[in-house]
Design a protein that fits this description.
The complex is a heterodimer of chains A (300) and B (283). With 300 residues, chain A is mainly α. Chain A has 14 helices and no strands. In chain B, the strands form three sheets. A six-stranded mixed beta sheet of chain B has the order 5-6-7-3-9-10, sandwiched between helices. A three-stranded antiparallel beta sheet of chain B has the order 2-1-4.
Chain lengths: 300, 283
């Protein structure tokens, strides 16, 4: 029987994976990786704020992550060069956070815990916060699923159908801030975006529907958490980076497996629909145009 | 699901205007300070098929987008009937390769539909059995038909199609137009169609609007094709003839009419059918 603190760590990670799976899928579909980074890095400032104001850690990170996510969203709507603006914000948030930490003697020694997580010290109280936040994110995404998916597919299609893409974006923004607050203790500010992107990218290789990809991302995330904790215990490596390293290993495996799969199918002459090359799809997600062959097929 | 915010039809509009699904009065749209559309008066009635033609950059897409509410009006106003169900087929729909999406799943956006309805819609649009395919793997023609099937599944009162036949060959265009016409006949849906082809519009169009930043002329297809405004704009290549796709019902293998057939459509129209030519200042 594993020790209590290991079980708590596993439970925390599983809770996190429940939220990062579906949210990570949206981050991948909507190319919000930098957005996730900017929001996550802001969490360090949140830690400082919470400590200075003697607030619970989760409230401080949630508040600052939310402020960051909202300003980034607003910036994006003004049509700034999104990539550059996000890059500036992501690194500025980190830099200001680290500078602020140096003014807080109590925090300086714990800095790596907030950067890389410290899942082995998760308490029962932490577990309540983590699961409450994760379930809230999951519930929100399930509630808005159809609308979110339509908006992600094409904002104009959504508007023509009477949806408000901005409201759906806000759901994602709130969910992202919540996930950052939940994840800071588990994988730390620097690795949160990795937990969003890597499991979702892993699931892409095998998914045929959005739901399949979200579910696959949850599974890949949970597997990474459990295997990463095991590695961490055995090799005495830091838990957060170990989890992310395992997730990256799973991603590489998924690409390898998909390549084999496609090779086999290529011989069978039954191309798996919807994928060009495994690498191209999973890594860059570049467009595969469907131009060209036009069917003069008459309607039934 | 919420409908777009609707402005109640106001003003003294009576008769056909009051019954319009969508209408615009003095509509102007600007892109970055440049006027793309100005002084557009427009209305489409239930069950009507209206085709918009115009050269590149004439504001065709901008007009339909403004009518749907995707573009803000700089001047004038757009009025949509309260609770109007719009089936929109955009000019381009890019399905990101990072997003796995089968045709069947796509049909259930934004509202989930039962399997039998989805299959019937695919069959209706001539793409039976495409359900399990990935959207990204479809050919241009299949993609357009799937978009149409999805638009029809919401049982809209108006179908808005922005250059739906782009990338189709002539038999494909003919078959697509016939599908639209049959759909109108069966369901009574109104159709607003942007045509990318200046010289060929579907014969079932009740009205053709010739657009070039403003409405140059409009009326029945035959009337528009004879209008000096239309000839001034498009009168090259086919001698100004506006050719119509017509059905041939006496054989199975559809032989679409070529652009230059110019087959019998009366150029002389009844006096009351005269196109409403605005001053034709084409610069």
């Amino acid at each position: 029987m594993p020790e209590d603190f290991v079980i708590r760590a596993a439970l925390a990670g599983i809770g996190l994976a429940l939220a990062t799976g579906p949210l990570g899928a949206f981050v991948v579909w909507r190319r919000m990786a930098f957005f996730g980074d900017a929001t996550a890095h802001a969490a360090i400032l949140g830690v400082v704020l919470a400590t200075a104001a003697s607030l619970p850690l989760y409230l401080g990170t949630l508040a600052v992550a939310l402020a960051m996510a909202l300003s980034v969203t607003a910036l994006g709507r003004r049509g700034h060069g999104a990539d550059t603006a996000l890059g500036v914000l992501a690194h500025a948030a980190l830099a200001f956070g680290l500078v602020a930490v140096s003014f807080m003697p109590g925090l300086r020694n714990d800095l790596s815990a907030y950067l890389f997580g410290d899942v082995l010290t998760v308490t029962r109280g932490d577990l309540v916060w983590i699961w409450a936040g994760a379930l809230l994110v999951l519930a929100g995404l399930v509630w808005r699923w159809q609308a979110l998916l339509t908006t992600t597919l094409n904002a104009e299609l959504a508007r023509a159908a009477g949806l408000d893409p901005r409201r759906e974006e806000l759901v994602l923004t709130l969910a992202l801030a919540l996930v950052v607050a939940v994840a800071i203790k588990i994988v730390g500010a620097l690795m949160i975006a990795a937990m969003l992107i890597i499991p979702a990218a892993t699931a892409r290789s095998f998914a045929r529907t959005p739901e399949g990809m979200a579910a696959g991302a949850v599974l890949a995330g949970m597997l990474a958490v459990l295997a990463g904790l095991a590695v961490s215990m055995r090799l005495d490596t830091p838990a957060g980076p170990s989890i992310v390293a395992v997730a990256a290993g799973l991603f590489a495996l998924s690409l390898f497996a998909l390549s084999l799969f496609e090779l086999g199918l290529g011989r069978a002459g039954d191309p798996r629909p919807g994928t060009g090359t495994a690498l191209g799809t999973a890594l860059s997600g570049r467009e595969q145009t469907s131009e060209g062959a036009s069917d003069g097929q008459p309607p039934a | 699901m919420t409908r777009p915010a609707i402005r109640p039809a106001t003003g003294p509009a009576a008769g056909p205007a009051a019954a319009a699904l969508i209408s615009a009065k003095g509509l102007g749209v600007r892109h970055g300070g440049v006027a793309v559309l100005s002084g557009i008066d427009f209305a489409i009635a239930p069950g009507e098929i209206v085709t918009i033609v115009g050269p590149n950059g004439s504001g065709k897409s901008t007009l339909v987008r403004a009518l749907i509410g995707l573009e803000p009006a700089a001047q004038g106003r757009v009025t949509r009937r309260a609770g109007l169900g719009i089936g929109y087929v955009p000019q381009r729909l890019h399905v990101d390769a990072a997003l796995p999406m089968t045709v069947r799943r796509f049909l259930s956006l934004p509202v989930r539909v039962p399997d039998d309805e989805a299959e019937a819609a695919l069959a209706r649009c001539g793409v039976t059995g495409l359900g399990p395919r990935q959207m990204a793997s479809l050919s241009g023609g299949q993609f357009q038909r799937v978009l149409l099937a999805r638009a029809l599944l919401s049982r809209p009162e108006i179908l808005i199609l922005d250059e739906p036949t782009q990338g189709l060959d002539q038999p494909g265009v003919a078959a697509f137009y016939r599908l639209i016409e049959e759909t109108r006949a069966e369901t009574g849906v109104a159709v607003l169609l942007v045509s990318h082809d200046l010289h060929v519009v579907m014969s079932a169009s009740d009205r053709v609007i010739c657009l070039n930043g403003h409405i140059c002329c409009e009326g029945a297809p035959q009337v528009v094709s004879a209008a000096p405004e239309y000839r001034a704009l498009f009168g090259f290549g086919t001698g100004g003839a506006l050719a119509l796709y017509r059905h041939v019902h006496d054989h199975d293998h559809d032989q679409p009419h070529r652009h230059d057939d110019g087959h019998g459509h009366p150029h002389g129209a009844a006096p009351e059918d005269h196109p409403q030519g605005h001053e034709a200042g084409h610069a």
